[in-house]
Write a structure and sequence with these properties.
Layout: H1 12-18, E1 23-28, E2 31-36, E3 44-45, H2 47-62, E4 68-73, E5 81-82, H3 84-91, H4 96-117, E6 122-126, H5 134-137, E7 141-144, E8 149-150, H6 167-175, H7 177-186, E9 190-191, H8 192-198, E10 203-204, H9 207-221, H10 226-261
Parallel strand pairs: 2-4, 3-5, 4-6, 6-7, 7-10
Antiparallel strand pairs: 1-2, 8-9
Length: 274
C-alpha cells in the first residue's frame, strides 16, 4: 500500500502559498532558499510570524525535494522591527491558554523544530544587525555581513528580561560559559570580525555577495550523495540536539516565568539596531 495514502508529502507550490505573508521561496537543484519578509520588506517581528516559523521548519523537513537549506532575510537588517500591537494582543490577554501557546509553546518549537525536523545541511545568511539570530548560530554554516553584531539585549531592558529564548543558550554554547554569561549580563556587543575570530560565524561577506556565496557553498554540498549530505548534517546538528534537550526548556520557562512575575511587556524602545 502506497505511503501517500496515509501521509501527503508537502509540495513547495503549496506551502509557498501558505506562508507567502512571511517567507519567499526559491529552489534549484534541491537547494531551498527561504527569505523572511514582511510585506516584501524587512521582517517585522510579530506573534503571527513567530508561529509561522515554528510550523515552517516541520513542513520544510518533510519535503524530500529539499536537500540544502539557505535561510536569509530581506533588506539590510536581519530582524529589526516589531509589531507592537500583536505582542500586546497576547501579553495583555486574559486567556492563559493563548499566552501559553504563543509565549511558551511556539517559542520552544521555533528552535526545537529547526533542529529536530530539518535533517539536511543548513546555511544561515545574516544580512545585517538584528535579533533572534539563534537559528543562524545553530545552522551548520553561518555567514554574516560586516555590520552584524552578536548581542542579546534582554537583561538590559528597563525592567530586565531573562535571556531565555535561545540567544543566551547560543552565547553559552558558542562562546563558552564564562564569556557567554558575561555577554548576557552586560549585553556585550560583539562585531562581525570578532565573531569570526571567536568561531561564532564562518565567513564575513559583503552584503551584495553574501547570498551568492551561500549558493556556492550549497552547490558544493550538493555534489555529494544524499546519504553523505544528510548523515554529515546529523553529526553537525548532534551537539545542538543535545544542548536543546538538556537546557532549552528551562531557559524558555525561566524567561516566561520572570516575564509574568514582573508583569512586564516587551520594551520595544530599548532594542534598536541603527
Amino acid at each position: 500500500m502506497a505511503i501517500n495514502q496515509y501521509y501527503q508529502v508537502p509540495k513547495l507550490e503549496e506551502y509557498s502559498e501558505r506562508f507567502k505573508d512571511f517567507f519567499k521561496f526559491k529552489r534549484e537543484n534541491g537547494i531551498l532558499e527561504v527569505k523572511m519578509h514582511t510585506k516584501d520588506g524587512p521582517v517585522k517581528w510579530s506573534y503571527q510570524f513567530h508561529h509561522a516559523l515554528a510550523e515552517l521548519w516541520t513542513v520544510i523537513g518533510h519535503d524530500k525535494e529539499n536537500e540544502v537549506l539557505i535561510l536569509t532575510s530581506t533588506g539590510d537588517k536581519w530582524i529589526n522591527e516589531w509589531d507592537v500591537e500583536s505582542f500586546k494582543e497576547v501579553e495583555q490577554s486574559p486567556d492563559d491558554d493563548k499566552r501559553f501557546d504563543v509565549q511558551i509553546y511556539d517559542t520552544l518549537k521555533i528552535v526545537e523544530n529547526f533542529i529536530n525536523d530539518i535533517e539536511i545541511p543548513t546555511i544561515a545568511v545574516i544580512n545585517g544587525k538584528g535579533i533572534h539570530w539563534e537559528m543562524c548560530m545553530m545552522s551548520d554554516i553561518t555567514l554574516c555581513t560586516p555590520d552584524f553584531v552578536l548581542q542579546d539585549d534582554h537583561f538590559g531592558m528597563d525592567s530586565g528580561h531573562v535571556p531565555g529564548d535561545g540567544m543566551g543558550l547560543c552565547l553559552q554554547e558558542i562562546l563558552g560559559i564564562k564569556r557567554g554569561n558575561y555577554a548576557m549580563l552586560t549585553c556585550e556587543a560583539i562585531d562581525a570580525q570578532k565573531c569570526l575570530e571567536l568561531g561564532a560565524v564562518n565567513e564575513v561577506v559583503e552584503r551584495e555577495n553574501i547570498v551568492d556565496r551561500a549558493w556556492e557553498i550549497a552547490g558544493d554540498i550538493m555534489k555529494k550523495s544524499r546519504s553523505c549530505r544528510r548523515l554529515t548534517h546529523y553529526i553537525c546538528a548532534r551537539p545542538w540536539k543535545s544542548v536543546i534537550e538538556r537546557d532549552f526548556r528551562i531557559h524558555v520557562l525561566s524567561e516566561m516565568y520572570s516575564f509574568n512575575l514582573s508583569h512586564s511587556e516587551h520594551d520595544f524602545e530599548y532594542i534598536k539596531y541603527d
